[in-house]
TrEMBL record:
Record-linked InterPro entries: Homeodomain-like_sf, HTH-type_TetR-like_transc_reg, HTH_TetR, MftR_C
Stretch forming the signal peptide: none
Top-level taxon of origin: Bacteria
Residues annotated as domain HTH tetR-type: 31-91
Chain residue ranges for the region called Disordered: 1-25
Listed name of the protein: TetR family transcriptional regulator
PROSITE patterns linked: HTH_TETR_2
Classification of source organism: Bacteria, Bacillati, Actinomycetota, Actinomycetes, Kitasatosporales
Keywords, in A-Z order: DNA-binding, Transcription, Transcription regulation
Positions with biased composition (Basic and acidic residues): 1-10
Pfam families listed in its UniProt record: TetR_C_14, TetR_N
DNA-binding region residue numbers: 54-73
């Protein structure tokens, strides 16, 4: 008779394999959460200032924990970054599709008419108030400038593609720097001198769009 195999030598029992708990978030949903956090942070920063705003408050406004906020952003100031950077690819696509000989303003107008949000985020008056905070909040200023620093290579690639030039060519790099500086100057000009959060939304949007159009027209002078 064959003796029974000792228990400690029996093959281990394994639980059925399978995923438990919540399904992973899609990249699209992650992007939505980042934008929700960004909008909540903007509203709180404008209403009560950056110093008085906590990660817990930002999370509560969105319906998530502070831990979730920090999972997406390293600091409360960086929460606004999606609103600063949302328009980079829109502008890059605008430059890439810009036909030779056509005023850039016409292409820019079509981009706006299609419903694309160039600056991004909440209403333009609130965006203006947020940009004004970058004057007195070093953390926000750093995020603001970093966004434009990262935009410049995207603009250079778009202009190089438009002109059929290699990406490392100096000319599109210089032109990209011009456009980048013009856009930042336009938004800051709008923020310093233009509408605030109490301004009618339609008026604020018209003022910002006119400022951006003027800045791009100036930067486009001399670009073939």
């Amino acid at each position: 008779m064959i003796a029974a195999q000792p228990e400690d030598r029996m093959p281990p029992m394994t639980a059925p394999r399978g995923r438990t708990g919540r399904p992973p978030l899609t990249e699209e949903r992650k992007a939505e959460i980042r934008l929700e956090i960004a909008r909540a942070a903007v509203d709180l920063f404008v209403a009560q200032g950056v110093t008085a705003t906590t990660g817990e408050q930002i999370g509560q406004a969105v319906g998530v924990s502070a831990r979730t906020v920090w999972r997406y952003f390293p600091s409360k100031e960086s929460c606004v970054r999606p609103l600063f950077s949302e328009g980079i690819e829109v502008i890059a696509a605008c430059l890439r599709d810009w036909p030779p000989g056509q005023p850039l303003g016409q292409l820019f107008d079509r981009t706006l008419a299609s419903g694309l949000n160039v600056v991004g985020g909440p209403d333009r008056g609130t965006v203006g108030a947020l940009v004004r905070l970058t004057r007195t909040e070093p953390g926000l200023r750093a995020v603001w400038l970093q966004t434009y620093d990262e935009a410049e290579p995207a603009f250079a690639r778009a202009l190089a593609e438009r002109a059929g030039l290699p990406a490392e060519d100096l000319r599109p790099t210089i032109h990209a720097a011009m456009f980048n500086a013009a856009l930042r100057a336009a938004v800051e000009h709008y923020a310093w001198r233009g509408a605030d959060a109490s301004t009618d939304r339609a008026t604020a949007e018209a003022e910002l769009e006119a400022t951006l159009r003027s800045a791009l027209a100036v930067a486009a002078e001399g670009v073939i």
